[in-house]
Structures are given as C-alpha cells and as structure tokens.
Design brief:
Blueprint: H1 3-35, H2 37-58, H3 63-90, E1 112-113, E2 119-120, H4 122-133, H5 155-172, E3 180-185, H6 191-204, E4 210-213, H7 214-225, H8 229-240, E5 243-249, H9 259-272, E6 276-281, H10 285-292, H11 294-300, E7 306-311
Parallel strand pairs: 3-6, 3-7, 4-5, 5-6
Antiparallel strand pairs: 1-2
Amino acid sequence: MTRAERVRALLDEYARQRYENEREQRRREREAFSRDPELENLRARSIELAAGSLRAAMGEPDADKRRAIAEEMRRKGTLINAETRRRLRALGLSEDYLEEHYRCPVCRDTGYVGDAPARFCACFERRLAMGEQGGQAAQTFEAFNAAFVPEENGQRARLLEAKRLLEEFADRYPQARWRNIVLSGAGGLGKSFLLNCVYERVSSRGLPATRSTAYRVFDAMRKRHMGDGEGADGFAALLETPLLLVDDLGTEPLMRNITVEYLFLLINERMEAGLSTIVTTNLNPAQILERYGERVCSRLFDRASALAIRLEGKDLRLHGIR
C-alpha cells in the first residue's frame, strides 16, 4: 500500500470514528433524557438561545448592542449549563455526558489541526507511521477481533465487555469514570493485548502514558532502594507519569523490604496525586492479598476509584489465536 493509499484509508477510518462519536452521543442523550426529561428541555433552550441571539445580532447595526446581546447569551447559557451539569451529577453521570467525546480531543477525530493550510494531527502521523513500519500486527482496538474467541461459558462475552470498558477508559481519559483498573485472569486470555490497546489509544490522542512490565517496575524499585541514581530517576518517572500501565503484576521477584514496600509506595503516591494506573495480573484478589498484603490490595481495589475486570476461559494462544 502506498503512502497516499494509507492516508486515504486512515481518513476513512477517522470519518467512521466521527460517525461513531455522533451515534454514541445520541445514545447517551436518549438515556439521559429518558431518566430526566428536563435535560431535553434544557438542551432545546440552549439551542434556541444560541440561534435567537445570532438572529438578533445579525439584525442589529449597533456594535454596542451586539456586544450586549452576546453578553446576555453567555449569561443565560452559563445558567443553563450549570443546571444541566447539576442534573447529570444527580443521575450519577459525568458533567460532559451529553457532549460529543473524541478519541483525540486535539483534532476532534478529523486527523487535521490548524487553519488553512491544515496539517495532520500528531495522532494521525503516529498511526500513519505505525502502518509504514509493517511487521507485527498492531495491537489496537481497531484490530481487536473476538470472532475466534470461544463462546463457551461466556468467554467471548466477558472479553467483549472488558474491551468495551477499557476502550471507554482510553477514550475518556483523563475524565474516565475510574482512576485505576485491575485486569486479571489466567495467561493467554488477552490481558496484555487489551493493555496495549489502551496505551496505543491514549498515546494516539497525544496524551502521555508509560507502559512497563512488572519486572522493569521491580528493577526500578530495586535500584532506588540500593541508592542507584539511575534507578532513582526511573522510579521517580513511574511515580510521576500521568498514566502508568503495568503488565504481568505478580511475575516480578518478591524481595524483602523492596517489592511490597515500594509497590505500596508507588500505588499510594499515585492515588494521592490523582494519577491513573492500570495493571494486568494472573493473580486473583485472594492471591494478591496473600502476596502483597492488605495495604496494597486495598489500594488496588479501592471501591471509590478502581475497576476490577476478571477474564476467564481457554488460553487463546494454545488454540492458535493471537
């Protein structure tokens, strides 16, 4: 495929994404309006306010009066928006629930930024570069295919639900419903693939994220504990990155005075700073409690901010599925 063909294919994909954004927004509107009909009235008032103010301003030759019309529109609009947000919170929904959500808020999923002549957004350039690299199949939500996952015992349904929740997180981060996510289950169920999908989606939106294995996290902990300057910088980076994704928690060495203590420090400090962490693990909650203790377990599964997802079923790798 030539570069021009890849560009056209990506632009088509972005167009489909905008269509999905609009369809999802309409679905959220129907849900919210059915639960609180006044929200629909507020939306109609907001639209009429903007249209009426525009008509009045276009027919007003006096500049001061046009500014007064605009100021009155902003005042009334602020009141409408405040009441809308209040009602959404009362329903347990986010304040931006009725707004269109974008995979990339910079270009609003158009692929372009800037005025004429517009240029490709960083998210578009990154996706284009990935296609040019070839080789290993991209681990992205777009490449996700559950058709070959067994349906027995609900395995496919659980994986699809996990994909839906993680894609929602990746699309709405940093305003996602959950701050932390624990994705657990036996090996070969798709945990690392989904983690990579989140990393790719968040990065493609131009947002900073750090992906690491549990062993590399442990190595940074060990170097920090031993006074290694380079390791201290590495651990500090893990503490400070806005989104940390850790794969295979539980496979790292269990070293006294290091593993448990520094893992608690890492998770606790990130929670206190309001930063997000996602981990995958083969361990179940009981095993996490046994290995790391109550303090680490309570932070990982904090009811106020964490989402726990458990996958079950056959090892997809043993059945020729990647």
